[in-house]
Specification:
Length: 1119
């Protein structure tokens, strides 16, 4: 069935879902005290309708044209099931909503479902929603968990009247918006302006562009001083990428590929990969607007410098609006060239704000009809604002606290004119409140100012309610939320969207930081004791929760648990041991409570099913104390005789944890107490690997002095030097080299430390290794040198460094590809220029006879094609199969490149080129007419390539036509892929079946990594095609050449339980080992895919040996 037909069914289902939603909404809005179940069902229907709308729009778009849906496809089966269930639901609801029955009986109307029926309905709809949205949200959730809209919505909600609207009319903003004044607008505001006016500017700009530029992508990031440790460069780029992807109807293939690759290797993607994806995704929009709010609140150091560097790249393809304070030097250096505007709070905004505040009921009664006093208040505050918005917000609070007109007049005369003076004045006013109110305000300010992350109001209330020495929580001790804000006299506020409680401004945080010792001398001691007391409560004595639902229920009733578990040690490190050590030892001795805390430490946010169980098992009290770096507690536990070599389920000892943290004192203590320096931790990494990875020089020195093996390798054959080079840890690299580390050791992928530093884009690390004699011509598993690898990735800085060091520009990999071939295929224009400037041979051929022009034509990179032609590339050079660049471009549908080559005089058969352009589209008539002429034959290059293109686009009619005319079914493209391989890798069931029926070779392998059609169909997630290939006898034992994985290894690493089961049911060898010697079971256990591991074990238990192969390896068969 074609997409438009399916779209029609989905659209009908959407209408039905909306109709059901309206009926339920009528019930919930009309019936007083409508049940919570009714509201839950209403929300579920709304969510389901939103997903259906998005799906319907996609199915009607051009992107869906190549897709064909089988009657048995998941989408059609689910749509039919949804339709049946929703119709039944609507009929039942209609009994209660027809004619006058509702109007007569609405007040006594009862919900027409039992609790069980309602729950089953909600569960079913929820499953459908997940089914339609699962893959998209899995990828997006994996990318970023930042709730990017919360701050935007909260800022817009708090804006008074027309505050900030003047910004949209500024000449600078309009010039930037229209693209007449460069791509960066830097809005600068002094302290006191920033967090109010600047946030309004950011939110207004975002809102304005979103509403007026429907064709543009809009992304943003709000920095916040109170969450600076959580705002890393990875999080910023991931959040921006996620926002951009949410504005697309489907995920681009490179995003899905990165997700699959990262899942497969169990790795977090590098920032450079995320940046590249962000830039490539941005090209899918007519324009992209990026707003960065409060950039100065991004933590100074690596994060901010790397972000500023990234913004320079983004400036090329995006329009950037940045707000910040003006004085940070690094910002001035990076943004000095930008269009700039100085922002101040305008008088009209301040005046509107003050007038609105004076409408306060109490103050309005005091002022009565005294308009003169009201004007005096507004004038005094506006005149003293000096372009700041914060100062009026503090001063008006002082006015509102007065009880007579005389007090207001006297207060006006003594209003502090500086921010710090205002803060001091407010604290003095807090100090004269009744003792209980004063003490509560003091504690609230202490907690907010010193919490390790922003606290939600429920967390704060529970933290404040903890009483020393208690074993249970008493709800009667919870403070009143509204009164907390009142007691603090305007210094705190609660975000309505996120429910996070915050200080009114970051300058107040700076004030507290300066005066913390005098204002809050016992801050960390009090918070530590509250956290530990909470964790010792009997409520957590049953140990960790066994399901997500149980865990969420626990957090609902004990919202402070997660903060207490994750940060008690952070506060403990900053206070005296005597203040908490006894309580810490008591907590460590309560096994079930400790396990409950470990679950809360590791569970994180709700991103996927089973998240609550993803915490380290067998995590001892020594692991916990070490992870926080609390030396006194570690020492006390060792004195009690705890096992210093204990490993939790991922295999880490306390020494590995301390080395990863860079905790010199704890590492020294553990070594002095006999910890084994060579003990292997997480996935085979030792303490030295961990310290090198994270750049901890002092810890690395301690470990080396204690005899750590400098050449020890992990299961991927990484040495400590590999680790340090991969992450650009310059100090550790120098240290290891001084200690004699071997630079030429190769990992599992035959990469040296120089390879790792180069591909991870660390130019300084590359320079250090080269200066110390590293072999720049060393080759990895596919024969690539560092230059070849970095040219392929377009890492211009490293490429230039290598070229300046004199590396061979003509070095080739095992396919005889030069750096120029690789850079051209990747479309890396500047890298291609750099290579040509250093004399790269533009006519060099790989083993297939292809030049760089062939490779770039294959990729369709127009600007690089232009450059190569300008530099003298042979436009008509043919590869070993007689294919020219023109044929390459045409056979891959790159129309603009075809036009350029033809305009430059490229020779070619015009009818053949036309056939190639017609094959992937719905142009059977044109293809037939072309083949009926004498000018083109199915046996020549154009005819063969046309078959490949038709297979790629699932064009069954053209495939049949070409085969009937004699096209070679085994013809291969430049990558060695046949029509069958292409159709399978794209998930085209009908085309794959047709080609198999016509005798296509099912075991054909592409030339780069020896993937089979089965392997690529599995990687693409094309379950039906995988099943088809297995039914036709596809070899499940075929291994790719990178890591020696079978398709079972890949499915296991990805965590695809259904695919693993399908492969096992079709005889996949459980004992097959990859290039590292690992089985699928070992891989499942390594990446914590417990259900897959259980399935494999079950299959092994039900298996019988049927013999041995010639190599002596056991074969298994289900018995």
């Amino acid at each position: 069935m074609d997409p438009l037909s399916v779209a029609s069914g989905v659209a009908g289902l959407l209408c039905l879902a909306i109709q059901v939603g309206v009926t339920i909404a009528e019930f919930t809005s009309s019936v007083k005290g409508a049940s919570q179940e009714a509201y839950k069902l209403e929300r579920e229907i709304q969510a389901f309708s939103a997903v259906l709308k998005q799906l319907s729009e996609f199915l009607q778009s051009e992107d869906a044209d190549p897709i064909v849906f089988e009657p048995t496809s998941v989408l059609l089966v689910a749509t039919n099931a949804c339709d049946k269930e929703l119709n039944a639901l609507q009929k039942k609801l209609e009994k209660y909503g027809k004619g006058d029955r509702v109007s007569r009986a609405i007040q006594r109307l009862s919900w027409p479902f039992t609790e069980k029926e309602n729950r089953e309905t909600i569960d079913a709809i929820h499953r459908w929603t997940q089914l339609y949205n699962e893959e998209r949200m899995e990828v997006l959730g994996w990318l970023s968990s930042v709730a990017h809209n919360e701050k935007q919505n909260d800022t817009l909600r708090r804006r008074h009247g027309n505050t900030g609207m003047w910004f949209l009319e500024l000449a600078e903003f309009q010039l930037w918006l229209k693209g007449d004044a460069g791509n960066i607008l830097w809005c600068k505001g002094d302290p006191g302006v920033g967090k109010t006016v600047l946030a309004y500017v950011s939110s207004l700009a975002i809102d304005h562009i979103t509403k007026t530029r429907k064709d543009a992508g809009v992304v943003f990031f709000y920095f916040d001083f109170s969450a600076e440790d959580e705002q890393t460069l990875e999080q910023v780029i991931s959040s921006l990428l996620k926002q951009l992807l949410l504005q697309l109807e489907e995920l681009p293939a490179p995003v899905k590929q990165l997700f699959d690759r990262s899942v497969m290797k169990g790795q977090i993607p590098q920032v450079s990969e995320l940046q590249e994806l962000l830039l490539s995704t941005a090209k899918r929009f007519d324009a992209v607007y990026l707003v960065i709010d409060a950039l100065d609140e991004c933590k100074a150091g690596d994060c901010r410098s790397e972000l500023l560097s990234a913004l320079q790249q983004f400036e090329i393809s995006m329009k950037l609006l940045v707000t910040s304070r003006p004085h940070p030097e690094d910002l001035n250096e990076s943004l000095g060239h930008a269009l700039q505007v100085k922002l101040e709070a305008v008088e009209s905004d301040i005046s509107d704000f003050v007038y609105k505040k004076l409408e306060n009921r109490k103050t309005k009664k005091i002022l009565g009809k005294d308009e003169k006093l009201k004007e005096d208040i507004v004038t005094s505050i506006v005149d003293g604002a000096h372009g700041m918005f914060l100062l009026p917000t503090l001063q008006i609070q002082a006015i509102l606290d007065q009880t007579t007109k005389g007090e207001i007049r006297r207060c006006l005369k003594t209003l502090p004119k500086k921010l710090d003076d205002n803060f001091s004045d407010i604290l003095k006013r807090i100090g004269v409140q009744p003792p209980s109110e004063r003490d509560m305000a003091h504690r609230v300010l202490m907690w907010i100012a010193h919490a390790k992350r922003p606290l939600k109001i429920a967390e704060l209330l529970h933290g404040l309610a903890v009483r020393s020495g208690e074993h249970d929580f008493d709800e009667d001790d919870l403070p009143c939320e509204d009164l907390l804000v009142e007691y603090c006299l305007g210094l705190v506020r609660i975000d309505p969207a996120s429910l996070v409680v915050r200080l009114v401004h970051f300058t107040l945080q700076e004030y507290f930081d300066k005066n913390s010792q005098s204002l809050f001398p016992k801050r960390n001691s009090e918070i530590t004791q509250a956290c530990l007391t909470y964790l010792c409560f009997d409520a957590f004595g049953d140990g960790p929760c066994l399901s997500d639902e149980e865990y969420e229920s626990r957090l609902d009733t004990s919202p402070f648990l997660q903060y207490a578990a994750q940060h008690w040690g952070d506060h403990a490190r900053e206070t005296l041991e005597d203040d908490y050590q006894g309580l810490a030892i008591e907590f460590c001795g309560k096994g079930p409570n400790l396990e409950s805390a470990v679950q809360a430490m590791g569970a994180g946010n709700h991103l996927y099913q089973g998240y609550s169980q993803r915490f380290p098992k067998s995590y001892t009290c020594l692991h916990v104390a070490t992870s926080f770096g609390i030396k006194g507690v570690v020492e006390a536990l060792l004195d009690q005789g705890v096992d210093i070599e204990a490993k939790y389920e991922d295999g880490e000892t306390a020494l590995c944890i301390a080395a990863e943290r860079g905790d010199v004192e704890v590492v020294r203590l553990l070594l002095d107490r006999g910890a084994q320096v060579e003990a292997e931790g997480n996935v085979g990494k030792r303490a030295l690997h961990q310290s090198a990875w994270h750049g901890h020089e002092q810890v690395s020195k301690l470990l080396l002095d204690k005899g750590a093996d400098i050449e020890a390798t992990d299961p991927q054959k990484f040495t400590a030097l590999h680790m340090a080079a991969s992450y650009g840890q310059l100090g550790v690299i120098k240290q290891l080299l001084d200690k004699g580390a071997n630079m030429e050791v190769k990992n599992l992928w035959t990469q040296t430390a120089l390879h790792r530093a180069a591909v991870c884009n660390h130019p300084e690390a590359v320079k250090i290794l080269l200066d110390n004699g590293a072999d720049a011509e060393a080759k990895d598993y596919d024969g690539s040198t560092t230059l070849l690898m970095t040219a392929s990735l377009g890492l211009l800085g490293v490429v230039k460094l290598l070229l300046d060091k004199g590396v061979s520009v003509e070095a080739t990999d095992k396919w005889a590809q030069t750096a120029l071939h690789k850079a051209a295929l990747g479309g890396h224009l500047e890298t291609v220029k750099a290579l040509l400037d250093k004399g790269a041979n533009i006519k060099a051929n790989n083993i297939y006879g292809e030049t760089a022009l062939h490779r770039v034509a294959l990729g369709g990179r127009l600007e690089v094609v232009k450059l190569l032609l300008e530099r003298g590339a042979d436009i008509d050079a043919a590869d070993n199969n007689g294919r020219t660049a023109l044929l390459m471009a045409a056979s891959n549908g790159h129309l603009e490149v075809v036009k350029l080559l033809l305009s430059k005089g490229a020779k070619g058969n015009p009818e053949g080129i036309a056939l190639l352009m017609a094959a992937p589209g719905d142009r059977l008539d044109l293809a037939t007419r072309l083949l009926d002429t004498e000018a083109i034959k199915t046996t020549d290059e154009c005819g063969q390539m046309a078959l490949l293109m038709a297979a790629s686009s699932d064009n069954l009619d053209v495939i049949k036509l070409l085969l009937s005319k004699g096209a070679d079914i085994e013809a291969k493209d430049a990558d060695g892929k046949t029509a069958l391989y292409r159709s399978a890798s794209f998930g085209h069931f009908d085309a794959t079946k047709l080609l198999l029926d016509k005798g296509a070779d099912i075991e054909v392998r592409e030339r780069s990594y020896a993937h089979t059609a089965l392997y690529d169909a599995a990687v693409g997630g094309h379950f039906d095609v995988v099943r088809l290939l297995l039914n036709r006898g596809a070899d499940t034992e075929a291994k790719e050449t990178v890591a020696g994985w079978t398709v079972l290894h890949w499915a296991t690493a990805k965590g695809d339980l259904d695919l693993v089961e399908l492969l096992l049911d079709n005889g996949a060898n459980i004992e097959a080992r990859n290039g590292n010697g690992g089985t699928a079971l070992e891989m499942a256990e390594w990446v914590s895919h417990s259900k897959i591991a259980e399935l494999i074990k079950l299959k092994m238990e039900n298996a019988v040996y049927i013999g041995e192969d010639p190599k002596g390896e056991n074969e298994l068969s289900n018995g």
